């Protein structure tokens, strides 16, 4: 008998049929993946197992360990949640109570299901902390969630999820908010705990690389329907459904566009430093400073892409913003053979049309009160340029009639295309691309990468592409600079970085991306 068996599950929110006749089963000790793009119904299916879906009309059957839970009484579900089934949520900062210390939160989970003396509970908490790789934090159980790093918070969430030795662990996109190295550590930790305890794991993800490397079986979900399932090796070797084939083929492919001959420098920097003051004392004066970028020298040739990779806090975005003169820096910023750091504010305004940026989150970077036409026209009017908005929209794969719509009426991928349209409408010589694909599904990532390469080939635009995703970087960058603690520790052609990395940190990034 299966540990978890879902039969003919249907979930409706009003007239919106979000899960349609779903059937899924997990055996004891298995690591099963549920894969699909955003909005496919993955998370709501998992939440229905714990009866955490509110306002939905549910039908079908969900049996856990032979017990029907779809219409189970609240007292039964309270025993199952956190006791027999643990759950790790996507964003640990919002999943942990910011007002309670981490030790108190783990203790609460234990005492709710297995009341025990305080001393014994403390012993159990210390065991859990060691099990999830937080032995050094045992002395900091009085810390609050905001005092921990993202990876530490996620490990605390895992400790809470496994505190009562559950038979099933549901992990809903557990690494989305984490850096690539931390994400890989968390996934390996989950696999290790699963093997040690024999519990089953349902991993919800859109990352097929993770599925291929870690999971036993996989279910593919599209528009609320499970369209294919099977052993991971079989599904990847011989996918049956066209959507499965689409997902497998969606990873960014190819390499940077081919360039011939010497290319002149468009933008670059020499001995660039960026520091931020540390303020304190009674009057809030400067008591020190943080060196965010240290002694960076970089060259971006015409029509080429320079990739900058590194973990959060490595200085990637700070370097990019300094090159655009959006934050203060010292050193030289060379554009068109002139040092931008010597330009006045008014002189810089005349250069802005040539120096554009595409941001990480396409929704927050677009004005929700403006139509697409107004968003694109704003920059053109500021520089006194004539517009051809219809042509620009066609170039980025959108229809001209979309110009009258607002950002909320588009998908994430379409919104990112609008952001790109806003940048290229000014016919810039250089665009800073700050994590432009990190908020997008895998198949949409591939589309955006292909679009950027197409525009680069047609317009000879130079890019700096900031990312922590080396799979995307390999498909788009001509050269890669690896940043750590504000410094470039390795800088070489993309082929050299992947085939012959020199630094241990670069090797760790490649390994964490499951590329080695």
CA-atom Rg in angstroms: 25 Å
Spatial strand arrangement across the major sheet: 6-7-8-3-9-10
Helix-and-strand structural type:
alpha/beta
Helix run count: 19
Write down the domain tally: 2
If you had to describe this structure to a student in words, what would you say it looks like?
The chain has 2 domains: 4-248, Rossmann fold (3-Layer(aba) Sandwich), CATH 3.40.50.300; 265-512, Rossmann fold. The longest helix has 18 residues, at 180-197. The protein contains 19 helices and 20 strands. It is an alpha/beta fold. Helices cover 35% and strands 27% of the residues.
Provide key terms for this protein.
single chain; 516 residues; alpha/beta; Rossmann fold; 6-stranded mixed beta sheet; 19 helices
Helix/strand layout:
Elements: E1 4-13, E2 16-26, E3 31-35, H1 42-49, E4 57-64, E5 67-68, H2 74-80, E6 85-88, H3 92-95, H4 102-113, H5 118-131, H6 150-162, E7 168-172, H7 180-197, E8 200-205, H8 208-214, E9 217-222, E10 225-231, H9 232-237, H10 242-248, E11 265-280, E12 285-301, E13 305-309, H11 316-323, E14 330-335, E15 338-339, H12 345-351, E16 355-358, H13 372-382, H14 389-395, H15 412-424, E17 430-434, H16 442-459, E18 462-467, H17 470-476, E19 479-484, E20 487-493, H18 494-499, H19 504-512
Parallel strand pairs: 3-8, 3-9, 6-7, 7-8, 13-18, 13-19, 16-17, 17-18
Antiparallel strand pairs: 1-2, 1-4, 4-5, 9-10, 11-12, 11-14, 14-15, 19-20
């Amino acid at each position: 008998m299966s540990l978890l068996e879902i039969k003919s599950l249907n979930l409706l929110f009003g007239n919106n049929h979000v899960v349609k006749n779903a059937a899924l089963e997990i055996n004891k000790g298995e690591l099963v993946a549920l894969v699909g793009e955003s909005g496919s119904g993955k998370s709501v299916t998992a939440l229905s197992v714990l009866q955490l879906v509110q306002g939905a009309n549910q039908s079908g059957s969900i049996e856990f360990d032979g017990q029907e839970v779809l219409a189970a009484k609240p007292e039964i579900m309270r025993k199952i949640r956190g006791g027999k089934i643990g759950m790790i949520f996507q964003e640990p900062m919002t999943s942990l109570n910011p007002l309670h210390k981490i030790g108190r939160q783990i203790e609460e989970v234990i005492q709710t299901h297995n009341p025990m003396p305080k001393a014994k509970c403390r012993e159990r908490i210390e065991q859990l902390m060691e099990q999830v790789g937080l032995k050094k934090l045992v002395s900091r159980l009085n810390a609050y969630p905001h005092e921990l790093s993202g990876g530490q918070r996620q490990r605390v969430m895992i400790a809470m999820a496994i505190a009562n030795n559950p038979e099933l662990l549901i992990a809903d996109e557990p690494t989305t908010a984490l850096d690539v190295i931390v994400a890989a550590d968390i996934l390996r930790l989950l696999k290790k705990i699963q093997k040690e305890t024999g519990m089953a794991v349902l991993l919800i993800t859109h990352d097929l690389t993770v599925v291929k490397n870690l999971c036993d079986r996989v279910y593919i979900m599209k528009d609320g329907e499970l369209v294919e399932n099977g052993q991971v090796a079989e599904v990847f070797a011989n996918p049956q459904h066209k959507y499965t084939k689409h997902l497998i083929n969606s990873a960014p492919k190819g390499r940077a566009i081919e360039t011939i001959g010497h290319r002149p420098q468009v933008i670059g920097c020499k001995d660039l430093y960026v520091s931020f003051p540390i303020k304190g004392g009674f009057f809030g004066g400067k008591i020190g400073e943080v060196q965010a970028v240290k002694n960076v020298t970089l060259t971006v040739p015409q029509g080429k892409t320079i990739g900058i990779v590194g973990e959060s806090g490595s200085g990637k975005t700070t370097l990019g913003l300094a090159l655009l003169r959006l934050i203060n820096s010292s050193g030289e910023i060379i554009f068109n053979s002139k040092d931008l750091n010597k330009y006045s504010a008014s002189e810089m305004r005349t250069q802005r049309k040539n120096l554009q940026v595409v941001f990480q989150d396409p929704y927050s970077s677009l004005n929700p009160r403006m139509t697409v036409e107004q968003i694109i026209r704003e920059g053109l009017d500021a520089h006194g340029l004539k517009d051809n908005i219809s042509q620009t929209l066609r170039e980025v794969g959108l229809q001209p009639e979309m110009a009258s719509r607002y950002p909320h009426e588009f998908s994430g991928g379409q919104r990112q295309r609008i952001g790109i349209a806003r940048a290229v409408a000014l016919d810039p010589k250089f665009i800073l691309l700050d994590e432009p694909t990190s908020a997008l599904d895998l198949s949409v990532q591939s589309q955006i990468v292909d679009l950027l390469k197409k525009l680069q080939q047609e317009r000879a635009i130079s890019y700096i592409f900031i990312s922590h995703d080396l799979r995307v970087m390999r498909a788009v960058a001509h050269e890669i600079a690896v940043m750590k603690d504000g410094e470039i520790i390795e800088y070489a052609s993309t082929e050299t970085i992947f085939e012959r990395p020199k630094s241990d940190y670069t090797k760790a990034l490649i390994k964490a991306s499951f590329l080695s």
